[in-house]
């Protein structure tokens, strides 16, 4: 199954009559505040293992066995691997990537959930595109041509507009028009526009590119990894916390990507301080005590 066939199948796998399905659901809840709660087990102690929520995941959580899956097993398709992985590796942050052709005649705006911050000095962001360099999609085509982009973080306030840009429009059609979002051409280090509605945007220069050999179709390329160096940041002034360094989630309101056509919002938060090995665990002596406790439990 080639890339275009995979994408076609993905589109067909969505709800056949989505508006009817959506109409049956409760409306968006504006009253749900961002709030902090305790962790599931505030009295958790070192060596205790999983908390009680582990058993609530399903009625058979305690006895269910793990299934061994060979990603290249006989009869297993690339599509099945895709569906499994995007449903398991979740939630994922979304890079809303703006690019522009070298001559400025074509602009593209597209969401990408194969995205992550991977270094701070210099700021490096990973973007992955499930198409080969030889058959580059619009974003990749412009990124390879100019070496520039703007990564915009997606918030609740324009989630529908963001999703609209994922349509399979031909090259040269501006997703800015499709989405109704506002391009701002004031970037300091790149020519692409940033999204005005985005609380946080990152100007970026292409640092390196790597493409991958397909295991399902040997001799062909299946996707690529782009590392982008952040060269300038834009943060909305009302989003800063009192420290004027980090951003407030209650203003950022980030949207994440889950499996299929599902997205997530963040409303319930917990905090977990990172433990100190000597102070909190008691150092090596403390670890030895945990080992003794574990052996004693096994012997019972």
CATH topology of the largest domain: Pnp Oxidase, Chain A
Total number of beta strands: 14
Share of helix among residues? 10-25%
**SSE order in H/E notation?**
HHEHEEEEEHEHHEEEEHEEEHH
Strand order of the biggest β-sheet: 4-3-7-10-11-6-5
Domain module count: 2
From the coordinates shown, what is the CATH architecture of the largest domain? Roll
Instruction: State the name of the first-level CATH class of the largest domain.
Output: Mainly Beta
User: What is the rounded distance between the termini?
Assistant: 53 Å
- Which sheet architecture does the biggest sheet show? 7 strands, antiparallel
State the low-pLDDT regions, or none: none
Strand content: 15-25%
- Provide the gyration radius in Å: 23 Å
CATH level 4 superfamily of the largest domain = Electron Transport, Fmn-binding Protein, Chain A
The helix/strand class is alpha+beta
Helix count equals 9
Which whole number gives the mean pLDDT?
93
């Amino acid at each position: 199954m080639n890339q275009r066939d995979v994408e076609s199948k993905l589109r067909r796998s969505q709800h056949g009559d989505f508006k009817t399905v959506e109409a049956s659901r409760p409306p968006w809840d504006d009253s749900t505040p961002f709030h902090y709660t305790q962790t599931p087990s505030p009295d958790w102690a070192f060596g205790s293992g999983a908390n009680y929520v582990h058993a609530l995941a399903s009625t058979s959580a305690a006895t269910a066995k793990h299934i061994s899956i060979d990603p290249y097993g006989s009869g297993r398709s690339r599509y099945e691997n895709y569906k499994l992985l995007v449903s398991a590796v979740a939630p994922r942050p979304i890079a809303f990537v703006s690019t522009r052709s070298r001559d400025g005649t074509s602009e593209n705006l597209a969401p990408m959930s194969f995205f992550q911050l991977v270094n701070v000095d210099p700021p490096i962001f990973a973007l992955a595109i499930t198409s080969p360099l030889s058959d580059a999609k619009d974003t990749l085509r412009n990124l390879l041509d100019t070496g520039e982009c703007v990564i915009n973080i997606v918030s609740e306030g324009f989630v529908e507009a963001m999703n609209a840009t994922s349509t399979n429009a031909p090259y040269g059609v501006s997703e800015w028009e499709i989405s109704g979002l506002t391009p701002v051409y004031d970037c300091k280090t790149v020519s692409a526009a940033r999204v005005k509605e985005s609380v946080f945007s990152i100007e970026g220069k292409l640092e390196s590119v790597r493409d991958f050999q397909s295991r399902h179709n040997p001799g062909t390329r299946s996707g690529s990894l782009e590392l982008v160096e952040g060269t300038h940041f834009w943060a909305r002034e009302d989003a800063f916390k009192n420290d004027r360094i980090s951003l407030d989630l209650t203003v950022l309101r980030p949207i994440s990507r889950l499996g299929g056509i599902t997205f997530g919002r963040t409303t319930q938060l917990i905090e977990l301080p990172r433990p100190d090995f000597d102070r909190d665990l008691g150092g090596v002596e403390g670890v030895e005590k945990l080992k003794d406790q574990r052996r004693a439990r096994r012997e019972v």
